[in-house]
Sequence to fold (507 residues):
Amino acid sequence: MSLRQSIFVVVVALTAICARGTASLAADRPPNIVLIYADDIGYGDLGCYGATAVKTPNLDSIATAGVRFTDAHCSSATCTPSRFSLLTGQYAWRKPGTGILPGDASLIIPPGTPTIASTLKTAGYTTGVVGKWHLGLGTGDVDWNGDIKPGPLEIGFDYCYLIPATGDRVPCVYLENHRVVGLDPADPIRVNYGSPIGDDPTGRERPDLLKMKLTHGHDMTILNGISRIGYMSGGKAARWVDEDMADAITGKAVQFIEKNEKAPFFLFFATHDIHVPRVPHARFAGKTALGPRGDVIQELDWSVGQILATLDRLKLADNTLIMFSSDNGPVLDDGYADDAVEKLGSHKPAGPFRGGKYSIYEGGTRVPLVARWPARIKPSVSSTLISQLDFLTSFAALTGQKPPADAALDSLDTLPSLLGESQQGRETLIEHAGGLAIRKGQWKYVAAPAAGKKGAKANTAKAPGGPALFDLSTDIDESKNLVAEQPTIAAELSAALEKIRSSGRSR
Ligand code: NG6
Ligand code: CA
Fold:
């Protein structure tokens, strides 16, 4: 062997040893977990799910390097119940009071309830939530000028930076831990969901002042030229600027990662995009042919890119499990005249599925889900039936734990499926949008909405009128009701749904 050859051999051997060293180091330290939870993003809204009218290179890069799921679900077709289910591992429809909350609602997850955050905290993670909350705060009659609790910090998070409810609901201020950010005590905040408060004009009385007109609802206090749900006065210095919201919360998410780079962390980054009001920063305004709804999808992708770049810069990408999903299906007109309907063109927000936000059809809860963890996950596409309900127990399994027997009652350990290592997934899954439906194999059974129940009538436009059975293997559009043709299967599924409902738990 020549000297040059011997040097080559030594260098190769040393490189191999070093590489093994890093790999085992990574194995010793559990992965960081970053869960990016977008608002109202539909199955067909991302490039990696077929969209061409918007560009989502950062999200697509997660899909390419990780697992992309084609049958993943949030628990409900609206925000609050999906978030409740995600964090607690329980179907929200089991618990009254978990529907879309006003901005002054009390916290609906009682302190002491095991959550994804408390589970990972027990495993030694530092836990943070940045972005949309919409799970209530306090115990009633919140004073926005004092310490606001209980909230995320009382149910397992070490840090929070929040949009308290939604972008279209007052109060339009950020909360950091227990306090409103930038509040001038001489200008206290008051919030009321019943009757007008303060001197700020309302959208109902002064539509001429609006920079974005409303189509329904959203006619109360005007803040930043946009009228909202609910009345608010004061807190002028603390009010957010919608155009800067993605920058503000993405910046806080990046800071959280930077601050916690040395030990395992869990970041729940709940974006405001692409919920209404859709008000992109000037960098994104007009960048797509779809109008503001398309522009904020690209803003969302930028936010994701900032997180990816931070993980790369800090050399954390390899041992970070990064996941992206949505809290419900897509909606076009959700109360503001922002051209979402007019400029849709051939873009299909729900992909091949029927329905969207508020709907019991697949478009309501079948959402994008991609997961990347370079040290562990091999790139693939998975058609496994997956529910966000299962993240809690799966993350527990990942960190060598099991949730207590009396908690996370509907959360199953589907970790091997989430990592793309198994096609097992769930056997059944319940979809929720006012009414309930059950999925099993190729079948979907939609129970009739309970007669006379609030919401039942409104729901019929978004659901079949009576019980329905669809064969998703041949009818992805859910247009052929087979209840009469397949009574035995319909009865079996109806019974299975009833059993999950009446037993109060699925595990
Ligand atoms: C609805 C709002 C809608 C949106 C939704 C909650 C009206 C007319 N509609 O009541 O704009 O805010 O609540 O969306 O006010 S979610 O994604 O948070 O569930
Ligand atoms: Ca939502």
User: Anything to note?
Assistant: The first strand starts at residue 32 and ends at 38. The chain has eleven helices and 20 strands. Confidence is low (pLDDT under 50) at residues 5-26, 455-460. The radius of gyration is 23 Å.
